[in-house]
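Look over this one:
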Amino acid sequence: MSDPLASMIAALTEARHIYAHDVQYGATFAVDAVVQYLQELDIDPQLCVPLIGLSGALVDAGMGITNPHVSLAKHEGGTKTPIQDSLTWGWAAAAVTLQLEAGETLPSAARRVHAILGNRFPVSKIIEYRKRLTRGKSTVREQSRSNYHTAIGSAHAEKQLSPRQRAEWTLTTLRNMTGTKQGEDRTKVR
């Protein structure tokens, strides 16, 4: 009999590769991998019901079918930026700030972050977003602001690191968050 944990890790690895090309299918594949793992552990099947519902909802959403798990309430104002993007924007702004502390220029710091995040995060938008965030503009989502302060605080907590090392640590974290390999430039057309 195979190891359930090893099987789940293999399935999640495959899901991550799929996710890079098809977000909805990759997310569905990941949820299904977790459900399969839990079922192999012989847990109460009722504990899997919400995850199975989420998996079905993701498939429904991909086909444009309304489902209670993904039904949309009327937007009441504020940002429409997906939460994951808001969190990434917060880390991006922190990475720029730490690059500045390490002696980089603003355009150079933003270009380094842009190379990691790709064309969905243009240099000019990274600079503008950081400006809005650091000036306390209400158009910045609270989760993004919180992520920014967490990133800055975590980097500064590493007292033994130089400003350059802190800046590189944040860039490495961004790479890990986005699955970008060291030296890979996401701005190149593939």
